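A.,

Following up on our hallway conversation. Structure tokens first:
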């Protein structure tokens, strides 16, 4: 049964990617609807803001499963040991991202923010990515841009480079997971859609109905939600179709 399911997923992978493309387009439709609808989707603790940490937690769990079930030994004698360590590192990274997304449960548990942190945090929360260093008037490095760069790198650039250059694929395959390239193309599609909306809507103000939320704000919230959805889908496909947890990791890696 499991073998048949995996074969079906592999045979229909492009259909899955096409369905996800349509879903990405649909996720932006609240921007064109009423104020109440847009608020319900993009405001803090609403639909997209609730789904995003779920995607991140699921991705964390998927990488942790890969780490636990991988036959690779954490030993210098195993040539693939870096890859298993990468699974653990990525699991930790996505766990931290999910924790940041829900402000480490601060709003759920009604934990007050210490005054010391309030003074250096744009949203006055117990979060690292909202520090003045990453956002606001005193921004030094944009956390949003770093997140986009990470998404493009792991989701598109690494798979594409490994597909174009076979020697690179052989070098990377036993050191780092190469996600399915098909899913990587969803990343620039998402980027193009949000860029187009940010440019088009100000020219056609009748299409946008929210009186107080700036046009880019809602669009960027949806963009971030979609990046997290794409990465979760790509990692799930990798775990199910690309990573043979019973055999050696290097042989199981193929791109796309």
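Then the amino acids I'd put at each of the 256 positions:
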């Amino acid at each position: 049964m499991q073998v048949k399911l995996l074969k079906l997923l592999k045979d229909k992978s492009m259909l899955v990617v096409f369905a996800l493309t349509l879903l990405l387009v649909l996720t932006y439709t609240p921007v064109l609807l009423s104020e109440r609808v847009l608020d319900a989707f993009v405001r803090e603790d609403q639909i997209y803001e609730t789904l995003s940490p779920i995607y991140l937690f699921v991705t964390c769990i998927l990488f942790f499963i890969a780490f636990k079930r991988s036959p690779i030994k954490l030993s210098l004698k195993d040539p693939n040991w870096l890859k298993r360590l990468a699974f653990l590192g990525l699991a930790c990274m996505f766990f931290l991202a999910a924790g940041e997304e829900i402000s480490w449960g601060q709003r759920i548990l009604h934990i007050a923010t210490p005054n010391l942190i309030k003074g250096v945090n744009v949203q006055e929360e117990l979060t690292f990515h909202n520090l003045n260093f990453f956002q606001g008037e005193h921004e030094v490095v944009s956390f949003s841009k770093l997140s986009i760069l990470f998404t493009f790198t792991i989701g598109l650039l690494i798979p594409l480079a490994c597909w174009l250059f076979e020697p690179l694929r052989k070098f990377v395959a036993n050191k780092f997971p190469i996600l399915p390239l098909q899913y990587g193309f969803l990343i620039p599609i998402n980027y193009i859609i949000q860029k187009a909306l940010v440019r088009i809507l100000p020219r056609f103000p009748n299409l946008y109905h929210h009186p107080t939320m700036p046009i880019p704000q809602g669009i960027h919230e949806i963009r971030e939600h979609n990046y997290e959805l794409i990465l979760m889908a790509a990692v799930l496909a990798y775990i199910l179709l690309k990573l043979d947890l019973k055999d050696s990791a290097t042989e199981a890696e193929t791109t796309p």
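The chain has one domain: 2-252. Curious whether your intuition agrees with the design.

B.
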